[in-house]
Design brief:
Blueprint lengths: L1 E5 L11 H15 L3 E7 L3 H6 L3 E2 L5 E5 L2 E9 L8 E6 L1 H4 L10 H22 L5 E5 L5 H9 L10 E6 L7 E3 L2 H4 L14 E2 L2 E3 H8 L2 E4 L2 H9 L1 H4 L3 H6 L4 E3 L28 H13 L9 E5 L8 H4 L3 H6 L3 E6 L3 H13 L4 E5 L3 H10 L2 E4 L9 H7 L4 E4 L2 H6 L11 E3 L4 H15 L2 H12 L5 H19 L8
Parallel strand pairs: 1-2, 1-7, 2-6, 7-8, 8-12, 12-13, 14-15, 14-17, 15-16, 17-18, 18-19
Antiparallel strand pairs: 3-5, 4-5, 5-6, 9-11, 10-11
Helix pairs in contact: 1-20, 4-5, 5-7, 11-15
Length: 491
């Protein structure tokens, strides 16, 4: 199939979070399975793109209208890496300059970015004389692609079937704008009035519009798909819209890139190890304690956390427990940045508990890998988690995860109470529930034989992108049939 992906992030060129890894992982897996995959991404820094080998496509300056202004867009490409995905950057410095999510960017810029990206993407198949089978939009920043496909490019407006798929990576981010934004998008005003595609409590909601316009919609784990329909706390106001899609909405679990995340070959680690040969992990544990100044007895466990400091990630459940657990002999290695109040609390805990709690503000990929490899258990007590990658990395690196049963965490971590367990699962988003899970983990840690078996089971778990790609192939087939009018359940 010819697959056109539209996204705001793609690793490693433009990465802020897990979206970048997910888009790159899926695109690569689909290309390896024989599909022609082309990824359309904003060019956030033309100089960096040039250094990475991207060059302007000859004769490909496109005038694209956003509101009352025309923007001249350049398309940047570089030679295709073998059979891998082909990346195409949309270069317009006024709109896309300043980084992936620039600080202080107002709604006008956010709206212009979404409109310009979607329009440029849909112009590509005709420009390239490339019949596209699927237009796959990722998250709210790309959700206008299926909207414009439906409103502007019906019939023979695009070469190929051009079935549309919208993947929701995080429903909490919806791109909600004032009702007048419909004019900036070049869409009919009635679409912003009930029951129009864009209307959302008197505002314009790009995610809602994409959900309604796409031929098929999915999210990144089966449990999160269920949660977003069944519980308003997860549905974020769109649970009814998602439920209305019926069988056209479902969940496909993300994968992990085990070439990039492999403790046997990871150069960031002081010693290699694997499930079959785990000896090097003890050296990683000792090196991490020394690096972070943690004075921890050999027979007491070290807990790691890597991630955004945000309410979603549940760190506010863990922070009140640090003093009590440190008194029990636990150590903590925390890495992340985000909410200023949570950063301050984490820094205060590290200052109050030297040698037991270490906090590094910011993000350091190499240190993150050393935490996965050197901690004994990995904290991921998320209030909600569409899929999550941290728990997959932690399993592979021999750090049994301690997770709340939600979203992709529920789909990937098996509680140690089961014979096939590989982690510790709790249900309620309360500090006492997390405390009980950590104490269960600490008790099992004391049994080195049982703990080693738990680690080995987790290290052998596989959540690969090839499995996910097969699921997307089924969704693509249904979307293409729906776009061609061959699916009674489609549009």
């Amino acid at each position: 199939m010819n697959i056109l992906m539209v996204a705001a992030e793609y690793a490693p060129l433009a990465k802020v979070g897990g979206l970048a890894d997910a888009v790159a992982g899926l695109a690569g897996a689909l290309a390896r399975r024989g599909h022609d995959v082309r990824v359309v991404l904003p060019c956030y820094d033309a100089q960096a793109a040039g250094a990475a080998g991207f060059r302007a496509r000859p004769g490909a300056a496109l005038p694209v209208r956003v509101g009352q202004r025309y923007h001249v867009v350049r398309l940047l490409e570089k030679p295709r890496p073998g059979r891998g995905p082909r990346m195409i950057l949309v270069d317009e410095p006024v709109v896309f300059g300043g980084g992936v999510y620039p600080q202080g960017a107002g709604p006008a810029l956010s709206l212009a970015r979404a409109s310009l990206l979607a329009q440029a993407a849909l112009l590509l198949p005709g420009l390239l004389d490339w019949p596209v089978d699927i237009v796959h939009a990722h998250d709210a920043q790309a959700a206008l692609a299926p909207v414009y496909r439906r409103q502007w490019f019906g019939g023979q407006g695009l070469p190929g079937a051009a079935g549309t798929v919208l993947t929701i990576h995080n429903l909490a981010h919806q791109e909600v704008h004032a009702a007048g934004a419909v004019h900036e998008l070049g869409l009919a005003p009635e679409l912003a009035a009930y029951p129009g595609l864009l209307e959302f409590h008197g505002s314009v909601n790009l995610m809602k519009a994409g959900i309604l316009a796409a031929d098929r919609v999915n999210t990144v784990s089966p449990t999160y798909a269920h949660e977003t329909v069944a519980d308003p706390a997860f549905g974020c106001g769109l649970e009814g819209v998602l439920a209305g899609r019926g069988a056209d909405y479902g969940g496909i679990l993300n994968g992990a890139d085990y070439e990039a995340w492999n403790p046997r070959t990871d150069r960031a680690l002081p010693a290699p190890f694997s499930a079959a040969s785990p000896g090097g992990r003890e050296a990683c544990r000792a090196a991490l304690r020394a690096e972070l100044g943690l004075e921890l007895a050999d027979d007491r466990p070290l807990c790691g956390f890597v991630g955004r400091l945000a309410a979603q990630k549940g760190l506010d459940l863990a922070l009140p427990l640090l003093e009590r657990l440190a008194g029990d002999g636990f150590g903590f290695a925390l890495l992340g940045t985000g909410d200023a109040a949570l950063e301050a609390q984490a820094a205060a805990a590290a200052a109050a508990l030297p040698g037991r709690v270490a906090f590094v503000r910011g993000f350091d990929d190499a240190l993150a890998r050393r935490i996965y490899a050197g901690c004994d258990m990995f904290l991921m007590p998320s209030v909600f988690e569409p899929c999550g990658l941290g728990q997959m990395y932690a399993l592979r690196y021999g750090a049994p995860p301690v997770v709340r049963s939600t979203g992709g965490l529920a789909d990937t971590v098996i509680d140690a109470d089961r014979p096939d367990g590989d982690g510790f699962v709790f249900n309620d988003a309360r500090p006492d529930a997390l405390l009980a899970a950590l104490r269960r983990a600490g008790s099992l840690w004391a049994d080195r034989t049982a703990w080693g078996a738990l680690q080995a089971r987790g290290m052998r778990r596989v959540f690969d992108w090839d499995r996910a790609a097969a699921g997307y192939e089924d969704v693509y087939g249904a979307a293409a049939r729906a776009a061609g009018g061959d699916d009674d359940a489609g549009r």
